[in-house]
């Protein structure tokens, strides 16, 4: 059977990683969370106390970082030079700074190289913002997930509450909207639906509905 490359893009908190993980598992494909790579770099840059606007300094940190993504029982393990950073890359501080790191072209060039390398043998589900447009322009299946900002903030809020984290819906909504704006308006590889991507509005759909739709498209291409 063919091993396809599946690109899943969309705005923040649209459910990309949730569905990508399930699809990867169903087909024994590799799941690659490219957002986690930008988050890992942001975490490291904050830790080193450098100015995130300093493109060269940020790119220099990346050049010294080995970023590994491994499947694990609760989704995936993210490691920087062998250190487990899976949780610390999800803090508000990282979330609210990652778009500033992700706008640098030196950073994106290096990430693109690494991401293509990870996908070289096919059989991957990769999620992000520029996968269909830049990283995997030849992916056999490209999906662009949308949902209203209210619905996305609500889902994230409920997730936080369930995990016992403090959470504020209005603030989440504002932060998600800000991040989308930064990611959509940057010059290099902005968040954008690829011409040949299939758009799915998940606002009124369950996770299982979205997975089923994408897997139907995948089956057509096998
Ligand atoms: O997917 P996630 O929300 O974890 O992504 C975090 C951030 O990483 C995004 O807001 C964006 O700034 C950046 N990103 C990107 N390109 C990708 C994936 C993520 O610029 N392919």
From TrEMBL:
Its EC number is 2.7.4.25. It is an enzyme of class 2 (transferase). Pfam families: Cytidylate_kin (PF02224). It catalyses: dCMP + ATP = dCDP + ADP; CMP + ATP = CDP + ADP. Transmembrane segments: none annotated. ATP binds at residues 10-18. It is found in: Cytoplasm. It comes from the Bacteria. CDD domains: CMPK. Keywords: ATP-binding, Cytoplasm, Kinase, Nucleotide-binding, Transferase. GO terms for molecular function: kinase activity. InterPro entries: Cytidylate_kin, Cytidylate_kinase_dom, P-loop_NTPase. Belongs to the cytidylate kinase family. Type 1 subfamily. This is Cytidylate kinase. It comes from Metabacillus endolithicus.
